[in-house]
Amino acid sequence: MEYEGRRDFAADLRDCLRRLATFLGESGSGAVFRALLARAQHDPAFAGEFTSRCSGAAAPARPRPAGTAVAAGRLPAGLVLDAEADRLVGPLCYRVLVPAGPVGEGFTDAVADVFLLRHDGPGSAR
Question: What is the DSSP string of 21-57?
Answer without folding.
Answer: HHHHHHSHHHHHHHHHHHHHTT-HHHHHHHHHHHSGG
